[in-house]
Amino acid sequence: MHAPVDLEQLAYKSERAAGRRLERAHGLSSEAALRQVLEASAGPAGLDALVAQRLALHDARLERDAARDAARDALRAAARARRAAIHEGRPTAWRAWFDGSARPNPGRCGIGAVLKGPDGVAAELSLDAGYGNSSEAEYRALVAVLEAAIEHGADELTIYGDSRVVIDDVNGPDALAAPSLAAYRATVLRLAARVKHLSLRWVPRHKNLEADALSQRASDRITSLESHAIDID
């Protein structure tokens, strides 16, 4: 062997355990004990051949990992480019904001949304949205405001939300979509196809205060009703 090799790194877990047992039983150094174990694993081919084989497997694994990471980075870059392209362009006549909350998380969901058209506020939503987690609540709010926009005939629409999970899930490539949210994503994409020009953009929470207040109002109303029902019982 022409270069020093860390046998500890190349050995399997069972071989390292066998080396430790041999070390204790015969008073060998850890390196000598592990070498004996690996020589036994190598058999007639010899330790050099075993080391070469495992180094080759290690290199192949590193190459696979690098290729996987490069593919993932490419998908993410494509998603960023897609989001950037979606966010460009002139302001649309119709705009909407959505938000959702779960108390606790998961728990009862409240959703809020605001839809504004060319003539001012067209709709406000503050609704009980059943049981789920915060991402499901956000998705249900997005679905609700999309349905409202379609009812009002919005053909050019920009929707704003402060949930990166939902915004990135909808705008991103299929390969990176969250499996647990697949049904919601499919519903949003089906509804989005009915709007001629649609842009979905992330905004920080302080720029989504109307929708947030409506979702919190819905959650407060749910909590109040549940408390009242308990008092009656």
Please give a structural write-up.
This protein has a 5-stranded mixed beta sheet with strand order 3-2-1-4-5. Helices cover 57% and strands 20% of the residues. The longest helix has 41 residues, at 47-87. The mean pLDDT is 89. Strand 1 and strand 2 form a beta hairpin. Helix 5 (134-151) packs parallel to helix 7 (182-192). It has 233 residues and is of the alpha/beta class. It has 8 helices and 5 strands, in the order ααααβββαβααβα. The chain is elongated and about 85 Å long.
Number of continuous helical runs:
8
Q: Which percent range fits the helix content?
A: 55-70%
- Unreliable sequence segments: none
Number of strands: 5
Rg is: 29 Å
Strand content: 15-25%
- Biggest beta sheet summary: 5 strands, mixed
Overall form:
elongated
Kindly report the average pLDDT value: 89
> What structural category do the secondary elements indicate?
alpha/beta
Q: What string gives the helices and strands in order?
A: HHHHEEEHEHHEH
Distance between the termini: 81 Å
| Strand order in the largest sheet | 3-2-1-4-5
